[in-house]
Each structure stands twice: as structure tokens, then as C-alpha cells.
Specification:
The chain is α/β, with parallel strands linked by helices. The protein has a single domain, classed as TIM Barrel, CATH 3.20.20. The chain has 13 helices and 9 strands. A 7-stranded parallel sheet has the order 3-4-5-6-7-8-9, with helices on one face. A two-stranded antiparallel ribbon has the order 1-2. β7, α6 and β8 form a beta-alpha-beta unit. The radius of gyration is 19 Å and the shape is globular. The two termini are 33 Å apart.
């Protein structure tokens, strides 16, 4: 496993998203299983682990803290603030940030958070105030690096002017190219900021294991309400999978690993964080580091994808409304 830089932070070229072990993608996995998967990731060279207080809520941070405790000093832990978990909505007021960081530190069993993201931009709080609050935490040693999630290029630049932003996390995948067109990738490249794609295998779609018969339980899987993963949209979006399957077969890999290899080939400062609760899927994802894509491969993927239309909004409207810049260039 090679390393990449998120600002001044060095991490493995593929990270591990922990969310799906505890929340949002069906019922939670057994705790022992989740811990085993995270530790297996570390054994295979992963040093970058992603969680958030809202996942569960709280229980995913607790899981990550327990799983990584035996080798805490060898890994980078990223977590997030910015939701008002008790009362709903967003809350990035400085006093709130100062309070919730203490709770995250306890759940994560650590004395510092390596990368602390604002989970969603709070329109009620100037981004300069948010960056200033995190800067104070950095000065106190409770946080080492500052990140933003689903922030617009304008907010990234404003925050970075107050305190260096190490990483920006946003959805980005072979079938969703929003950061290419909304200026976010460009801003990251110009400012020396790392970029962390969440849902790098399309919430499971790019594994090639879904079809029009796929259903999600609305009681515990938020994908049930995502227009892009409705039965009708899945059926219409299958040409994307057929393209990935064809190239993956030639490369002796899988569509999921090919999708991650494609992301790694886009920019040297991109570090995807695929999530899984199963060790076999973990090994499949990490196989991406052994997939070598030539210029011809990338051109084939790009030229054929350009002829396709991806159907359906990437999330439901309530979730999209929390995206900085919605509805402009965030679909």
C-alpha cells in the first residue's frame, strides 16, 4: 500500500469508511464483525479510517475507537461535526464545536483527532468562524488537521484563508462527476488540499451486484429514498455497469476495484474511502491498488461514459438541501 498526502497529512492511498458497519446501509453489523473488518484493513496497510458522530449516532465512533485502540499511533482517524443530533438540523457554532469534540475524543479513545471535518456547511454560521474554532482546537492539540465535507469551492477558499484545510470530502465516483464541474477539485489542486471521495463505488451500485429487482429497507437503509437507486433508475443506469464489467474482465479485476483504480488515476491527491462490513469485500476493494490503467484504458472509459446519461438524483431532496451550493452543479 502506497501513501498519499492530504495537505500535510500522509495516509494510505485507500482508506476505510466505517459508516456502513453501524448505520444507514441496513441493520448494523455485529460489533465483533465490524472490529474484525477494521483491524483486517489495518493489517493490509490501510492507515486512514473515517467515521462521524452522526453515524449511529455515536456508536460508529465507539466502534472505531475500540477497533483501532491497539495501534492508535499507527493510524489516522477522521471524524466529523456539524449536526445538531439531539434537536435536528445543522449546528457549527463555535461553542457547539468545542463541546462535541470532547465527546468524540472520548468515544474514539484518543487524545487527538487527526482530521476533523465540518460534516455539512452551516449557512447560519460564517465559515470563517468555523475555521477559527477548529484552529483553536489545533492550538490546543485536540485536533491536528481541518477538513470540510460537501463544501463549495467558495467556502473551501474562505476557510483555507483562516486555517489550512487538509482535505475535502465529497461524493465522487465513476458515475458521479460533480466535483469536476463545480470547481471543488480545481480548488483543492490549487491550494494543495487532499480530496476524499465518499461513496466511491456508488453506494454499492458500481460493484455490479444490483439490478432492477434490488430493494432497500426504508426503515434502516437510506438508499431506499435515493432516486438514483430506485428500481427504474437502476435499470436505466446498467449501461455504466456493463462498461465497467467489460474493462474489468480485461484487467482481471472486478467493477468495484476498477472504479477505485479509476479514482486513484484521476489525481495524485485523491484518497477514496470505500466502506464495507465484510472482509471479502474489503479484499476486493483493496485489490484496486494492483490495477494498472493505461492511458488507453482511461480514454476508453471516458469516451464511452460521455455517451451515457446517469438517471436519478444522487440523494433524496432533504439530504441534497444540506449540500453546500444546492441546487447548482451538485446533482
Amino acid at each position: 500500500m502506497k501513501s498519499r498526502k492530504l495537505g500535510a497529512l500522509s495516509v494510505s492511498e485507500i482508506g476505510a469508511g466505517a459508516m456502513s458497519i453501524s448505520a444507514n446501509y441496513g441493520p448494523p453489523a455485529p460489533r465483533d464483525q465490524g472490529i474484525a473488518v477494521l483491524r483486517a484493513a489495518h493489517e493490509r496497510g490501510v492507515t486512514f479510517f473515517d467515521t462521524a458522530e452522526v453515524y449511529g449516532p455515536y456508536v460508529n465512533e465507539e466502534l472505531v475507537g475500540e477497533a483501532l485502540a491497539p495501534f492508535r499511533d499507527d493510524v489516522v482517524i477522521a471524524t466529523k461535526f456539524g449536526f445538531n443530533i439531539k434537536n435536528g438540523g445543522l449546528n457549527s457554532r463555535p461553542e457547539h464545536i468545542r463541546a462535541v469534540v470532547e465527546e468524540s475524543l472520548k468515544r474514539l479513545r484518543t487524545d487527538r483527532i487527526d482530521l476533523y471535518y465540518q460534516h455539512r456547511v452551516d449557512p447560519a454560521v460564517p465559515i470563517e468562524d468555523v475555521a477559527g474554532a477548529v484552529k483553536e482546537l489545533v492550538g490546543q492539540g485536540k485536533v491536528l488537521h481541518f477538513g470540510l465535507s460537501e463544501a463549495s469551492a467558495a467556502h473551501i477558499r474562505r476557510a483555507h484563508a483562516v486555517h489550512p484545510v487538509a482535505a475535502v470530502q465529497s461524493e465522487y465516483a465513476f458515475w458521479f462527476r460533480g466535483p469536476e464541474g463545480n470547481g471543488v477539485l480545481k480548488a483543492c489542486e490549487e491550494l494543495g488540499i487532499g480530496f476524499v471521495p465518499w461513496s466511491p463505488v456508488g453506494q454499492g451500485f458500481l460493484t455490479g451486484k444490483m439490478d432492477a429487482s434490488t430493494r432497500f429497507n426504508p426503515d434502516n437503509d437510506f438508499r431506499a429514498n435515493f432516486p438514483r437507486l430506485s428500481p427504474d433508475s437502476i435499470a436505466k443506469n446498467l449501461p455504466v455497469i456493463r462498461l465497467l464489467e467489460r474493462v474489468a474482465a480485461r484487467k482481471a479485476t472486478t467493477p468495484a476495484a476498477l472504479s477505485l483504480a479509476w479514482l486513484l488515476a484521476q489525481k495524485p491527491f485523491i484518497v477514496p474511502i470505500p466502506g464495507t462490513r465484510r472482509e471479502d469485500h474489503l479484499l476486493e476493494n483493496l485489490g484496486a491498488i494492483n490495477v494498472s490503467l493505461t492511458g488507453e484504458d482511461l480514454q476508453e472509459l471516458e469516451s464511452e461514459y460521455a455517451l451515457m446519461t446517469v438517471h436519478g438524483l444522487r440523494m433524496d431532496e432533504p439530504n441534497m438541501r444540506a449540500i453546500d451550493g444546492w441546487p447548482v452543479s451538485t446533482i
